[in-house]
C-alpha cells in the first residue's frame, strides 16, 4: 500500500523504484564485494550496494557496524582490501579523496573537515582553488557560491569565520564545499548528530531539494526516525556486513530495528524476581552539557534500589555515556543532584572519582581501552586501578607488589581470566578477558552501587554469559546495579526495570514485559503518544 | 598503523631495536669520521682505550657518568609522565646555588659528610624550584612545558651570571666564581676504589657523589615501580583518561613529577661543584643537562638503562678527550654529533626499523604464520 | 653624543641584531604554521652559517656561500621532516637532535678542513655580503633628522638585511594571498580537512619545512658573511631560540614577528649600551636581566597573562588518519 502511494507521488522515481532493484548500469554508485580490515577488526565484509541516481539512500546500523568505513572507502579516504567501485556504471579507481572528487562524489564528515579560523569562502575553495593566487579564485568562488546559495537555498555569510558559526551553518558550509566541487553524489555521515531537531528538519528539507535538483544523496545514520523521514531506499549494516536493502516505503521501523540489532541468540539468563530494597542511587533533574554548551543529558531523574538492575536502553550517542560519567564523578554537571546511599555527591565542583569509589560506587566504564585499563600496564596493576589508595595495597607510600599480584591472581582464578598471569601486559589479553579484569576489579570491592557501561562490547560469547551471570549475582547480593547498553537484548534479559534514553532525556520506563518493538520505538524517539497510535 | 605486522617479542622490542638504533647512530658518526679523512675503527679503539684502558681514564669516565646519571634520570622521570623536561641544563645550573649555599655556610664548621647531605638537599630544592614554574604553568595554564623549560634554561644562564658577578664573587676577585670551599665543602675522591682493583690513578675527580647517583637510580626505580606516586605518574603518562577515571589529580601529578625531575637535575651540581671544582663557577654544567636527554632516550627511561647509557656517554666524553689528542682533527665536538645522532635514531626515529624488523619476524617460520593471520570470525 | 645620535645608533644596532632573528623566526613560521614544531632553528642556522663560511672561503664568493648555506640548512630541515612527517617521530626530540648534530658537525668539519680550531678562514671583502649604501646616503647625511635616519639607520646594511625585511611582506603575501599559503595554514590547523580535500598532507608539510630550511640558511649566511667575516664556533649563541620566542610572541604572524624581533634586538642593543650606566628613575638595571627579558616575556605570554599565544592547532602532532 505504502509503496504504491510512494510510486504515485514521486513521478521521477517511478522507473527506478518500480523495479526489483536498480541495474548496475543505472546505479549512480555501485559497490561490489568491498572488504576492509583494520588489524584484526573486519570493518567491512564483502559489501555489495547499489545506489540509484536521484534518490536519497539511507545506510543504517549501530555504532561500529562499518557504515563510516564503507563511505570513507567510497570517498577514497581509505582503500578497500578488495572489491570494486562503479560510478554511473563505470569502473572507478578511487584511491584518494581527489579521485572521488573528480568522480563527482562529495562527503560531509561526521566531524567537520573545516579549518576553524578560516572564513567560509576560504574553507570552500581549499583544495579547489584552481590557480596559485587567491585573489581571482576567491572572486570566482564568491560568485559561484552566490549561485549555489540561490539555487539550493543554502545561505551563509561567505566572510564569516567558521568558529563563529553555529554547527548547523558549519554543516551547510560542508555541503556547499561538496557542491562547489561539482558533487553529483553527496555522502553525509551522521549529519544530525550535532544538530538540534529544528536544524535537522531544515537539513532534511535541503536534502530533499538537492534530490529534486537531481543529486544523489547517501545518508549514514543510526537514527531510524531519520531514515523513515527522508530516504527513498535504506540499507542496513550489522557487524561489518550489509544485511538488507529495502525501499523505505515498504519497510517499518520495527523491521529495521530488528535488522540493525539482528536476531541474536537470546542468551537466557537465569534470574529470580528482584527484591528491591532501599534507594542507593538517586538522580534528580540532572543536566549535563558538552564542551560546546549543548545539553547532552537533559533533566534526567531516576533511582536505583538495592537488589535491582536498572537498564538504560538507547541508541548510542543519546547521552548515556555522559550520564554514566557524571554519576561516577568523571564529568561535571550543570545542575541537578545525585545521591549515593543517602549522601549527596558533589557534581558541579571538582568531581572526584576516587572519593566516590571510597563511598561505594564501582564503575565499569564504556571505554575499556582508554579509561578502564592502562593497556601497557601489567595485569595486576590494572587490577587495582582506582583502588590503589586502599590500605591493603599500600605500605606507607609503597605499593605492596606481592600482595597486589597475589590479589590479582586470586581474581584471575575467580573470574577465569586467561592467560592466568597477573604479570602479563594487559594489551596481550583478549577483549573478553580485558573486560573481566575490569569487572573483577570493580565487583570485588563490595560496592553499594555498580555502574556498568557496555559490559559485553567486543566480548566473545562465552565471556558474555559469564559476565551476565556475575551481574545477576551482584543484584542478588543486594547491590544497586545501573546498566547502560546499546544491546537491547542485554538490557531486556538483565534488567528489572528499563529506562529508555533519547536525545539526552529519559523518554519512558518499562518493566521486563516490554516487547522489543515497543522499546525500539521509544529508542527511535517516537514518543509515548505516537507509539500508541 | 594497522598494518598486518607480527608483534615483536619483548627482547626484540627492548633489546634489539635500541641496539639497532644505537648501531645506526654510530655508523653515521663513523661516516663523519671518514669524511674528515680518519679511520673510524681506529677512532673507536682510541675512545675505548682512552676511557677504559687505564685507571685514570676509568675514573674520569665514571666521573662524567655520575653527572649524566642524574640528568638522565631527571629526563626519564618526566618521560614517565609524558612530560618533556628539556630544562635539565637550567635546573642543574640553578641547583649549583643550593650546593654553594650549603658549602659556603658550613664548610668551615662541619666535616664534609655533614655538609654533603645539606648540599644535596640544597641542590635538589634549588633544581626543583627552577622546575616549579614551568610545571605549574603546564598543569594549571596549559603552557607548553618544552618551550617554557627552554626559556628557563636561558633565564637560568642570565640569573647565574648576574649572581656570580654581582653577588657571589668575592670583592677582591675578578673571575665570576665563588671563593674556594674549605675542606668541609669538598667531597673525598674515591679513586682508591679503582686502585684497589689494580688501576693506578694520578688524580681524577671521581668522588662519592658517584654512589649518590647509583642510589638515586635505585630510588627512582623504587619511586616509579614500587610506590603509589610512581604508579600514578605512569598512569598519567600512559593514559590521562584512565588517570582521570581512577580519580588521580592530573595537575598535582604533573607538578610533583616535575619537582622530582628538577630535583634530580639539580643534584647533578653536587658532582662537579663539591666533587671537583670546589667552588661555584660559570657554565659548570657543560651541557650535561642536554646529554641527559640522549641518556634517557637510550636508556628507555628505565634506571637500569639510564645507568649504562650514562656510562656509555661517560666513555664517549673521556675517550673523546683522548681522541682529540691522538687525532687532532677530531675534537670533543665529535661527541656532540654522536649525542645528536643517538637522540635522532633512538628518539625521533625510534620506530624507523620496526616495520622492516616486524616483516622479518613475520617471515620467520614459527613466529610468522600464526601471528599474521587475524580477523577470524570470533 | 646627543640623545638623537645615541638613539639612531641604538636603533641601528637593534636592526643589525634583529636580522638573523627575523630570518630564523620567519623560517620557523613556515614550518610551525604547517603543524611541524621546530626547535631546531638554532642548529639549522648554525649549519647554514658554517656552510656559508666554508663555501665562501673556498670559492671566494659570497653567493656560493649563500647557496651552500641554503642547501645544508634545507638538508637538515628535510631530516627533521623525514623524522616528524614520514616516520611520525617526536618533533621536539628531532629538533633537539638536529641542534646537536649541527653544532658538532660544524666544528669537526671546520677543524678538519681549515685547521683553525673550528673557525673558517677570515673572509675577504668579496666573499662577504657587505654593507650596501643606499643612493644619496652620503649626500643627505647632513640633513637634520631625516638625513641622519636615512644614512645611518636605513642605509648601510647588507643585501641580506634588506632581503630579510622584504621577506616580511612577502611571507605575509604567500601566507594570505596564495593557494600554497592557504593550504599551509590549513594543514597546520586541521590536516584532516586538507587530506579530505584531496591534498597530500605530507608533501605540503615537506614543502613547508623546505621553506624553513631555505630561510635558516639565509639567517646563517647573514651571521657568517655579513655580521662576521667567517664562521666561528657557536656563533648562533642561542639566537635560534630567541627567534622561536619571537615567533611565539608574535603568535605566528609575519608582521608581528618583525616587531617582536626588532623588540628583542632593541633589548639586546640596549643591554650592551647601558652596561654599567644607571638609568634615570629605575637606577642600575642588571644587564643580564635585559638579556633574559625576551625569554621572560615569552614565558609570561605562554602563561596567558598578556594575551594568549595559541599555536597552530595541529602543531606537534604527527598526522595519522583517524579511524
User: Roughly how many Å is the radius of gyration of chain C?
Assistant: 20 Å
Name the helicity range of chain C. Answer: 55-70%
Largest sheet of chain B: none
From the spread of the alpha carbons, the general shape of chain C counts as globular
What structural class results from the helix and strand content of chain C? mainly alpha
Query: How far from one another are the termini of chain B?
Result: 22 Å
Strand order of the largest sheet of chain C: 1-2
How many helices of chain C does DSSP assign? 13
Most extensive chain contact? Answer: B-C, 53 and 50 residues
* Fraction of residues in β-strands of chain B: under 5%
Give the SSE string of chain B. Answer: HHHHHHHHHHHHHHHHH
State the separation between the terminal residues of chain C, measured CA to CA. Answer: 68 Å
Radius of gyration of chain B: 22 Å
| Multimeric state | heterotrimer
Proportion of residues in extended strands of chain C: under 5%
Number of helices of chain B: 17
Question: How does this model look, in words?
Answer:
- The complex is a heterotrimer of chains A (533), B (378) and C (323).
- Chain A has 533 residues and is an alpha/beta fold.
- Chain A is built from 20 helices and 22 strands.
- The longest helix of chain A is centred in the N-terminal third of the chain and has 19 residues, at 134-152.
- Chain A starts with a helix and ends with a helix.
- Chain B is mainly α.
- Helices cover 72% and strands 0% of the residues of chain B.
- Chain B is globular.
- Mean pLDDT of chain B is 90; it is low at 1-5 and 367-378.
- Chain C has a domain at 7-130 and 137-236.
- Chain C has 13 helices and 2 strands; from the N terminus they run ααααβααβααααααα.
- Chains in contact: A-B, A-C, B-C.
- At the B-C interface, helix 5, helix 6, helix 13 and helix 15 of B face helix 3, helix 4, helix 11 and helix 13 of C.
Amino acid at each position: 500500500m505504502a509503496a504504491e502511494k510512494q510510486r504515485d507521488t514521486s513521478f521521477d522515481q517511478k522507473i527506478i523504484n518500480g523495479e526489483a532493484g536498480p541495474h548496475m548500469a543505472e546505479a549512480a554508485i555501485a559497490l561490489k564485494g568491498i572488504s576492509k580490515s583494520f588489524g584484526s577488526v573486519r570493518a567491512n565484509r564483502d559489501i555489495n550496494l547499489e545506489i540509484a541516481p536521484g534518490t536519497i539512500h539511507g545506510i543504517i546500523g549501530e555504532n561500529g557496524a562499518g557504515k563510516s568505513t564503507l563511505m570513507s572507502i567510497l570517498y577514497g579516504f581509505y582503500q578497500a582490501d578488495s572489491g570494486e567501485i562503479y560510478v554511473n556504471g563505470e569502473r572507478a579507481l578511487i584511491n584518494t579523496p581527489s579521485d572521488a572528487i573528480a568522480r563527482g562524489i562529495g562527503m560531509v564528515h561526521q566531524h567537520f573537515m573545516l579549518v576553524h579560523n578560516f572564513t567560509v569562502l576560504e574553507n570552500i575553495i581549499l583544495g579547489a582553488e584552481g590557480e596559485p593566487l587567491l585573489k581571482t579564485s576567491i572572486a570566482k568562488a564568491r560568485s559561484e557560491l552566490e549561485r549555489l546559495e540561490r539555487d539550493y537555498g543554502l545561505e551563509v555569510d561567505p566572510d564569516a569565520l567558521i568558529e563563529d558559526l553555529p554547527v548547523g551553518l558549519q554543516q551547510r558550509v560542508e555541503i556547499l564545499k561538496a557542491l562547489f566541487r561539482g558533487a553529483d553524489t553527496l555522502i553525509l555521515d551522521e549529519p544530525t548528530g550535532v544538530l538540534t531537531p529544528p536544524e535537522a528538519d531544515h537539513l532534511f528539507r535541503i536534502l530533499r531539494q538537492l534530490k529534486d535538483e537531481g543529486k544523489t544523496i547517501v545518508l549514514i545514520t543510526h537514527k531510524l526516525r531519520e531514515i523513515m523521514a527522508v530516504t527513498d531506499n535504506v540499507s542496513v549494516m550489522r557487524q561489518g556486513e550489509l544485511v538488507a536493502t529495502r525501499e523505505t516505503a515498504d519497510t517499518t521501523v520495527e523491521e529495521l530495528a530488528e535488522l540493525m540489532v539482528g536476531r541474536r541468540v537470546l542468551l537466557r539468563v537465569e534470574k529470580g524476581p528482584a527484591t528491591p530494597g532501599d534507594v542507593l542511587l538517586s538522580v534528580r533533574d540532572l543536566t549535563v552539557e558538552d564542551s560546546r554548551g549543548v545539553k547532552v543529558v537533559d533533566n534526567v531523574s531516576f533511582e536505583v534500589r538495592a537488589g535491582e538492575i536498572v537498564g538504560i536502553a538507547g541508541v548510542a550517542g543519546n547521552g548515556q555515556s555522559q550520564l554514566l560519567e557524571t554519576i561516577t564523578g568523571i564529568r561535571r554537571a550543570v545542575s541537578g543532584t545525585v545521591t549515593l546511599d543517602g549522601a549527596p555527591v558533589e557534581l558541579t565542583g571538582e568531581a572526584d572519582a576516587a572519593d566516590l569509589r571510597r563511598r561505594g560506587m564501582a564503575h565499569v566504564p564504556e571505554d575499556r581501552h582508554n579509561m578502564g585499563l592502562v593497556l601497557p600496564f601489567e595485569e595486576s596493576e590494572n587490577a587495582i586501578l582506582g583502588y590503589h589508595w586502599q590500605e591493603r595495597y599500600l605500605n606507607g607510600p609503597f605499593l605492596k607488589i606481592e600482595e597486589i599480584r597475589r590479589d590479582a591472581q586470586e581474581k584471575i582464578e575467580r573470574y577465569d581470566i586467561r592467560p592466568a598471569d597477573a604479570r602479563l601486559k594487559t594489551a596481550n589479553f583478549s577483549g573478553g578477558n580485558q573486560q573481566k579484569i575490569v569487572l573483577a576489579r570493580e565487583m570485588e570491592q563490595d560496592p553499594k552501587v555498580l555502574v556498568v557501561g557496555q559490559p559485553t562490547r567486543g566480548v566473545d560469547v562465552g565471556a558474555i554469559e559469564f559476565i551476565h551471570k556475575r551481574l545477576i549475582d551482584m543484584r542478588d547480593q543486594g547491590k544497586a546495579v545501573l546498566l547502560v547498553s546499546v544491546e537491547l537484548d542485554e538490557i531486556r534479559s538483565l534488567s528489572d526495570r528499563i529506562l529508555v534514553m533519547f536525545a539526552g532525556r529519559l523518554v519512558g520506563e518499562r518493566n521486563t514485559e516490554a516487547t522489543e518493538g515497543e522499546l525500539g520505538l521509544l529508542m527511535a524517539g517516537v514518543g509515548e503518544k505516537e507509539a500508541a497510535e | 598503523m594497522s598494518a598486518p605486522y607480527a608483534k615483536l617479542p619483548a627482547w626484540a622490542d627492548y633489546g634489539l631495536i635500541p641496539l639497532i638504533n644505537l648501531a645506526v647512530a654510530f655508523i653515521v658518526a663513523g661516516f663523519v669520521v671518514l669524511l674528515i679523512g680518519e679511520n673510524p675503527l681506529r677512532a673507536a679503539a682510541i675512545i675505548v682505550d682512552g676511557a677504559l684502558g687505564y685507571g685514570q681514564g676509568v675514573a674520569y669516565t665514571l666521573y662524567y657518568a655520575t653527572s649524566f646519571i642524574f640528568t638522565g634520570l631527571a629526563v626519564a622521570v618526566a618521560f614517565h609522565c609524558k612530560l618533556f623536561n628539556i630544562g635539565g641544563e637550567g635546573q642543574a645550573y640553578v641547583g649549583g646555588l643550593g650546593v654553594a649555599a650549603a658549602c659556603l655556610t658550613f664548610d668551615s664548621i662541619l666535616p664534609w659528610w655533614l655538609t654533603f647531605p645539606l648540599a644535596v638537599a640544597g641542590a635538589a630544592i634549588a633544581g626543583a624550584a627552577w622546575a616549579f614554574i614551568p610545571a605549574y604553568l603546564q598543569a594549571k595554564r596549559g603552557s607548553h612545558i618544552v618551550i617554557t623549560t627552554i626559556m628557563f634554561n636561558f633565564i637560568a644562564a642570565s640569573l647565574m651570571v648576574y649572581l656570580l658577578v654581582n653577588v657571589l664573587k668575592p670583592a677582591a676577585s675578578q673571575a665570576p666564581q665563588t671563593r674556594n670551599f674549605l675542606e668541609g665543602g669538598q667531597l673525598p675522591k674515591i679513586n682508591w676504589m679503582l686502585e684497589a682493583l689494580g688501576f693506578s690513578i694520578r688524580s681524577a675527580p671521581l668522588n662519592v657523589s658517584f654512589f649518590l647517583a647509583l642510589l638515586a637510580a635505585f630510588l627512582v626505580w623504587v619511586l616509579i615501580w614500587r610506590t603509589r606516586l610512581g604508579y600514578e605518574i605512569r598512569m598519567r603518562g600512559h593514559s590521562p583518561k584512565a588517570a582521570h577515571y581512577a580519580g588521580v589529580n592530573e595537575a598535582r601529578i604533573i607538578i610533583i613529577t616535575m619537582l622530582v625531575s628538577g630535583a634530580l637535575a639539580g643534584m647533578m651540581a653536587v658532582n662537579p661543584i663539591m666533587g671537583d671544582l670546589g667552588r661555584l663557577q660559570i657554565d659548570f654544567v657543560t651541557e650535561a643537562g642536554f646529554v641527559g636527554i640522549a641518556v634517557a632516550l637510550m636508556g628507555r627511561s628505565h634506571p637500569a638503562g639510564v645507568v649504562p647509557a650514562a656510562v656509555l656517554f661517560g666513555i664517549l666524553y673521556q675517550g673523546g678527550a683522548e681522541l682529540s689528542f691522538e687525532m687532532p682533527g677530531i675534537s670533543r665536538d665529535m661527541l656532540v654529533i654522536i649525542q645528536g645522532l643517538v637522540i635522532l635514531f633512538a628518539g625521533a626515529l625510534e620506530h624507523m626499523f620496526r616495520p622492516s624488523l616486524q616483516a622479518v619476524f613475520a617471515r620467520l617460520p614459527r613466529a610468522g604464520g600464526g601471528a599474521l593471520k587475524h580477523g577470524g570470525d570470533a | 653624543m646627543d640623545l638623537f645620535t645615541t638613539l639612531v645608533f641604538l636603533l641601528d644596532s637593534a636592526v643589525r641584531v634583529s636580522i638573523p632573528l627575523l630570518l630564523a623566526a620567519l623560517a620557523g613560521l613556515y614550518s610551525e604554521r604547517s603543524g611541524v614544531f621546530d626547535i631546531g632553528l638554532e642548529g639549522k642556522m648554525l649549519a647554514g652559517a658554517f656552510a656559508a663560511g666554508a663555501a665562501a672561503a673556498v670559492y671566494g664568493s659570497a653567493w656560493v656561500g649563500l647557496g651552500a648555506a641554503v642547501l645544508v640548512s634545507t638538508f637538515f630541515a628535510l631530516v627533521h621532516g623525514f623524522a616528524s612527517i614520514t616516520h611520525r617521530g617526536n618533533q621536539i626530540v628531532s629538533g633537539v637532535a638536529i641542534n646537536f648534530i649541527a653544532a658538532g658537525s660544524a666544528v669537526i668539519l671546520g677543524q678538519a678542513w681549515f685547521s683553525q680550531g673550528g673557525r673558517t678562514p677570515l673572509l675577504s671583502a668579496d666573499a662577504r655580503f657587505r654593507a650596501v649604501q643606499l643612493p644619496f646616503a652620503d649626500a643627505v647625511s647632513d640633513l637634520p633628522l631625516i638625513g641622519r635616519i636615512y644614512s645611518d639607520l636605513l642605509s648601510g646594511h647588507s643585501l641580506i638585511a634588506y632581503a630579510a625585511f622584504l621577506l616580511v611582506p612577502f611571507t605575509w603575501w604567500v601566507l594570505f594571498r596564495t593557494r600554497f599559503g592557504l593550504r599551509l595554514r590549513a594543514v597546520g590547523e586541521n590536516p584532516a580537512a586538507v587530506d579530505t580535500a584531496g591534498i597530500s598532507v605530507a608533501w605540503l608539510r615537506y614543502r613547508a619545512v623546505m621553506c624553513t630550511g631555505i630561510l635558516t640558511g639565509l639567517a646563517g649566511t647573514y651571521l657568517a658573511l655579513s655580521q662576521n667575516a667567517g664562521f666561528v664556533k657557536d656563533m648562533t649563541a642561542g639566537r635560534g631560540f630567541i627567534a622561536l620566542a619571537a615567533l611565539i610572541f608574535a603568535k605566528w604572524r609575519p608582521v608581528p614577528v618583525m616587531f617582536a624581533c626588532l623588540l628583542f634586538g632593541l633589548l639586546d642593543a640596549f643591554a650592551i649600551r647601558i652596561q654599567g650606566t644607571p638609568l634615570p628613575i629605575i637606577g642600575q638595571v642588571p644587564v643580564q636581566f635585559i638579556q633574559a627579558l625576551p625569554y621572560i616575556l615569552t614565558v609570561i605570554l605562554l602563561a596567558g597573562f598578556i594575551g594568549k599565544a595559541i599555536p597552530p592547532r595541529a602543531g606537534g602532532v604527527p598526522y595519522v588518519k583517524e579511524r
